[in-house]
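Subject: for your reference before the review

Hello V.,

The reviewers asked for a structural picture of the protein, and I figured it would be easier to keep everything in one thread rather than splitting it across files. Below is the amino acid sequence we used in the manuscript, unchanged from the supplementary table.
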Amino acid sequence: MDLTQAPELSTPAGIGERLREERNRKGMTVREIARRVGVSPSLISQIERDKVTPSVSTLWGLVTVLGLTMSDLFSDGTQASAQPARPLEVEGPVTVPGNRAVINLETGVHWERLTVATDHLVEFLTVEYPPGAASCDEDSLVRHGGKEYGYVTGGRLGVQVGFERYDLGPGDSISFDSSSPHRLWTIGPEPAEAIWVVVGRQSDGRGPAIG
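And here is what came back from the structure prediction:
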C-alpha cells in the first residue's frame, strides 16, 4: 500500500473478508473463534460473510483473538461502508474529511481512522455514538490490552471503567487502562462524538474477557 495515498472509499467492502482471511491464516475454526469471543458460531459466520454488522464489543473480541489491531480492518479498502471519494487536498501523512477510512458498526456507531495507514503502535480514531448506542450491553463490559485516551468533541458520552461511571461533555477527556472492564454509551438525545486513542492493544495475548 502506498503510504502517501488515502484509502480508496469508492468501492463498497466489508470487514468480514479480512477477519475470515486472518482466521484461516491462523488455522482457527469458526467454532473456536466463537467460543473465545463468547458468541455463537452462526454469528461469526454471518459477520465473515458481511451479512451482519458486529457490535463494538464483538469486533474488539474478534481482533483480540485474531491478534489484529483495529486499524488493520480499515486498511486496503476493507471499510464496512462506502463513501464517495473526492480528490485529496493534501498528500503525505495528512488525512482530510471524506477521504478517511471508515467502519460503521451495529446501532450506527461510526469510526474514522485518523492515520493514513495502519499504525501497529497506536489506534487514532474519531468515534460517533448516535442516541441510544453503546459499545456493549450493561452486563457485558469489555476489557483488552493497552491504554485508552478520549477527548469528547460533541454531545455527552458515558464511560464506565470498573465500578465507576463518568458523564463527559465537550472538552472533557478521560484516560484509563483498557484491562479494566469498560463501556461507552451516549447520554441524551444528541450523538456523542470524540477523538479516541488506543495504545498498546496489540500486546494483549490473553484473548478477550467479556462479561
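For the response letter, the relevant points are probably these. The longest helix spans residues 56-66. The domain at 16-203 is CATH 2.60.120.10 (Jelly Rolls).

Happy to draft the paragraph if you're swamped.

O.
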